[in-house]
Design a protein that fits this description.
The chain has about 525 residues and is mainly beta. The protein folds into 3 domains: about 140 residues, Sandwich (Immunoglobulin-like), CATH 2.60.40; about 150 residues, Immunoglobulin-like (Sandwich), CATH 2.60.40; about 150 residues, Cupredoxins -  blue copper proteins (Immunoglobulin-like). The strands form 7 sheets. A 7-stranded mixed beta sheet has the order 13-12-11-15-19-17-18, with no helix packed on it. Strands 2, 3, 4, 6, 8 and 32 form a 6-stranded mixed beta sheet that branches. The radius of gyration is 22 Å and the shape is globular.
Amino acid sequence: MAVSRRDVFKLGGLAAAGAAGLALPWGAGVSASSASLLPTSKMPKVFAAPFTRLGVLTPTVGTDADGPFDEYHIKAVPGLAGIVPGLQTPVLGYDGLVPAKRIDVQQGRRIKMTMYNNLPPAHPTFGTPMGISTHLHGSASLPQYDGYASDVTAPGQKKTYQYPNFQNARTLWYHDHGVHYTAQNAYSGLASQYHLHDPQEQALLPQGEFDVAVTLSDMMFAANGSQMYDDRSHSGLWGDVILANGTPWPVMKVKKRVYRFRFLNASISRSYRPTTSPAAPMYMVATDGGLMPKSQQVTSWRHGSAERYEVLIDFRNFKAGQRIELRNLSNPNNRDYDFTGKIMAFDVVDDPFDKNDPTSSTIPGTLNPGNEVMNLVDTGRFKVRNIRVQRDDTTNEWNLNGESWHDVVDSGYKKVLADPNLGDTEVWEIQNNSGGWFHPVHIHLIDFKILSRNGRAPFNYELGPKDVVYVGEGETVKVIMKFGPHKGKYMVHCHNLPHEDHDMMHQFSVGLKESDLDDNDPIWADPPTPI
């Protein structure tokens, strides 16, 4: 069932009068002082808490007929997070943690991850159903292990996912993808990073202490410290508290050297435009699908939900004791509040480090010129698909080319948006004429190259392999992709999660005819089992 704003207030123990705090008009660049109903004394303070690094999960080692693999057992359970001073916020966490621990793996090392749904039947705060589906975003997984939205693991069930990790190094993330309630589940904490390493990336970019994962999210809070959820008739949710790795506006101590930051936007709707003040030299070195052909110097970048950008920030020329703020310039059609223009801060310290490490003082120019995706060229001979991201003003639902996930389900999961053969290359033109919304469009299975925006060159920071593309207001974005390495059905959807849930999600099939027996059926090939 859908949860109304009134139901959220009841569940949060709030008076109906509190609703006035959310009654803001829609429009580009909308601002207000706050959305949370916290008393001033409880509102998290900007730059008051230390930055916390993501923990790393330790696997056990297993062996099967294909050789060794890393094995993880993770439980999705309710937890408590100390985000608001003096209060506990009920959350959903992998192993009860928000933020959850990340996974690190070397290229070629397989992983088997068993996800246990130990959640109650209904969300403790919002009352929504608690079926889950775990998607490793950025992985070329088989369909039955891809977190297909309708492949739902119910409370009391478990599912073992298999990840091949044959792709080049990249920042991935695993998050919930349960049909119709992805937004509530991810907002409540079911998300974390997953780092795939390879020798090329390890030789070029900072590692260990100087390879820093930063997961960005935003929340709004009820007076008792619980989360508030208002997606404004499925338009999106924009919180007034910005979190980096689960901490509001944290401060990180940095040494006088080059750092690598893996920025993931895990906000369910908000986009960011990060910049530094005072300006620090910044270089984009990797996008969703890994290393760019060449590094690109940037002063800011537009960062939509689910996109990952890896940035080198050079602190060498700052003095010890100096503070550099990571600010948010925002983008049209976000909802901004008093402090959403700030993200986190860096305080420079004069602590020692290994100056013989070449990555401490080097900004590599050439990174991965041989990337197959980035070497795709539109010859004019490839099939062109036109994809329209739209809103139906009658049903108040979102769709792709006039069709929604409801249509896919009603067809018995046969209806597809595209049906390329295995190994085909296609060009997709994604058009946004939906009015006052931007759409981060995610295509599962493959990486793609952005060819153009409204006929012009892509932004320099997105000149790398992508799996999410920010399609701004009035934009037509052209992308090129090669389909493989697996046959089967995969999803394409908007990653503004209230849009995805209502109901801006479709599927495409690779190498399948309608009459074919699908050995990798995403729902039935390897279904969940009882715990």
